[in-house]
């Protein structure tokens, strides 16, 4: 189903939760609405579900304006963070419920419930009631119930937040596979950029009720259109340094650094974003600047190394065991393999 939002605004009293949002979501895509807490993601999702009505603007499903269509007539499946299961029904009956509403024949209901239950790994829990399930299991049942009627649009509001890390990753892949298999258009709300990047075909990044960027995960990561996007997407976060472009030369805080600048680079003051993955540590004197390692954080098979680089002309490493004093140095983080031979306090070159 193709979804179009045209100038959609939602106000709660004086709070503008969603601000003139215009979006076109292609059929069959899994779209992530990504952004910091309070940016309007959930409000947008609730408007797609029909639970909330836009204050201004229009929502179209396959070209049909749906502003006035109630939730039950929108052909959407919903999994919300707080989505309650029917407490008096078993897991089986909870999943079967939407199919019973459609009056499908009993054998087909049984087949589809079992199929879906296996898919979300609750096949052994079908006779239990929701109160006998963990939060994560309840969420999986809610997912099965949303998917079982094969809706044209699947809406997911942080559906994996109650699951442990391992199950979460498995369920991401499951959601992806199911979504592809059914060809259902899906919109997933998340504040977790790793989740958005790993699962979505298309990411809509929101801030302050607006869309600040949209694109494929790859494009948003590789060519972020603005600083907010560059900062928000990618882990660990980008290093930001101030500098000045003059000709093909980029000066960073008085240190002469030569970088292959694009021909379109404008002369003047610039903010330079450098991902930790792109900062290399080399022997002192062999990099663009020299510094001292002030902190090392192990992140599994990689480690994040913080380097305070001096402002000394000629790129001389700051001397003394403490390195440069706070505020005078350039602080950069480098992501290096966990087994890289680097220790705190060591002098290094940075490339
Ligand atoms: P989170 O990730 O924390 O859930 P979100 O991006 O989903 O955040 P929304 O829940 O859409 O954000 O909220 C957007 C803004 O609208 C917030 O400032 C929120 O406080 C406000 N808001 C949401 N619902 C209401 C409401 N019913 N009444 C008043 N303000 C609301």
UniProtKB/TrEMBL annotation:
Recorded superkingdom: Bacteria
Enumerate the spans annotated as ABC transporter domain. Answer: 3-233
Tell me one GO molecular function of this protein: ABC-type transporter activity
One GO cellular component this record assigns the protein to is: ATP-binding cassette (ABC) transporter complex, substrate-binding subunit-containing
Query: Gene3D superfamilies of this UniProt entry?
Result: 2.40.50.100, Nucleic acid-binding proteins (2.40.50.140), P-loop containing nucleotide triphosphate hydrolases (3.40.50.300)
Key word Ribosomal protein present: no
Question: Where along the sequence do coiled-coil regions lie?
Answer: none
Q: Which UniProt keywords apply?
A: ATP-binding, Cell membrane, Membrane, Nucleotide-binding, Translocase, Transport
- Check the record and name the Pfam families matching this protein: ABC_tran
Q: What is this protein called?
A: Carbohydrate ABC transporter ATP-binding protein, CUT1 family
Please tell me the species this chain comes from: Thermaerobacter subterraneus DSM 13965
């Amino acid at each position: 189903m193709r979804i179009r939002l045209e100038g959609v605004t939602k106000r709660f009293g004086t709070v503008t939760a969603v601000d003139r949002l215009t979006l076109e979501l292609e059929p069959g895509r899994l779209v992530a609405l990504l952004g910091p807490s309070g940016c309007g993601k959930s409000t947008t999702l609730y408007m797609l579900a029909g639970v909330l009505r836009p204050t201004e603007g229009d929502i179209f499903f396959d070209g049909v304006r749906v502003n006035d269509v109630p939730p039950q007539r929108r052909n959407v499946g919903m999994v919300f963070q707080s989505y309650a299961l029917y407490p008096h029904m078993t897991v089986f009956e909870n999943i079967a419920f939407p199919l019973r509403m459609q009056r499908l024949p009993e054998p087909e209901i049984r087949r589809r419930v079992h199929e879906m239950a296996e898919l979300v790994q609750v096949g052994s829990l079908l006779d239990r009631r929701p109160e006998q399930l963990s939060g994560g299991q309840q969420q999986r049942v809610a997912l099965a119930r949303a998917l079982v009627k094969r809706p044209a649009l699947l809406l997911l509001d942080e559906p994996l937040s109650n699951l442990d890390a391992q199950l979460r990753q498995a369920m991401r892949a499951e959601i992806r596979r199911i979504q592809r298999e059914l060809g259902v258009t899906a919109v997933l709300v998340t504040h977790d950029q790793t989740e958005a990047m790993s699962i979505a075909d298309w990411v809509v990044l929101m801030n302050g009720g607006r869309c600040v960027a949209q694109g494929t995960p790859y494009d948003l990561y590789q060519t972020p259109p603005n600083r907010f996007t560059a900062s928000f997407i990618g882990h660990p976060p980008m290093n930001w340094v101030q500098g000045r472009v003059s000709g093909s030369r980029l000066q960073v805080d008085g240190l002469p650094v030569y970088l292959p600048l694009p021909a379109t680079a404008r002369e003047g003051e610039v903010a330079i974003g450098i991902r930790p993955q792109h900062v290399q540590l080399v022997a002192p004197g062999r990099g663009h600047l020299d510094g001292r390692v002030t902190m090392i954080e192990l992140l599994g098979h990689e480690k994040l190394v913080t380097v305070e680089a001096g402002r000394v002309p000629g790129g001389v490493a700051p001397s003394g065991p403490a390195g440069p004093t706070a505020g005078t140095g350039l602080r950069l983080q480098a992501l290096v393999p966990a087994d890289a031979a680097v220790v705190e306090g060591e002098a290094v070159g940075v490339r």
